[in-house]
Inverse folding.
């Protein structure tokens, strides 16, 4: 993800239709989720979200890293965000760039790196 994508995903982005998220799992890709209408004005880059994952739609914590990312999935394949966990973003743009670089350098997922830098509690 380039800095350009993060900038277009500024915290001021209102009416987000989809978000790009990363998980604390060994996944290399950013996943796309649809934002329900009642959450569209609240979702921001840097927040933790609850999203359904897998065939069983297990509620899973994810980190929002992009607003309205490019997506070539059909509408029917995109699941809805379940909830916003944090009312305010936990990380800002520079920290997202740093954690993305760390993930690449240490060959781990971006979500695992974000999980490591966010203080517990």
């Amino acid at each position: 993800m380039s800095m350009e994508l993060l900038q277009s995903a500024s915290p001021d982005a209102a009416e987000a239709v989809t978000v790009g998220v990363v998980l604390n799992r060994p996944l290399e890709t950013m996943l796309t989720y649809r934002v329900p209408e009642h959450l569209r004005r609240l979702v921001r880059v840097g927040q933790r979200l609850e999203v359904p994952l897998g065939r069983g739609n297990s509620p899973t914590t994810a980190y929002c890293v992009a607003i309205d990312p490019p997506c070539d999935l059909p509408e029917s394949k995109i699941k809805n965000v379940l909830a916003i966990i944090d009312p305010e973003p936990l990380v800002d743009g520079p920290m997202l760039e740093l954690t993305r670089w760390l993930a690449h350098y240490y060959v781990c997922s971006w979500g695992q790196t974000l999980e490591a830098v966010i203080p517990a509690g």
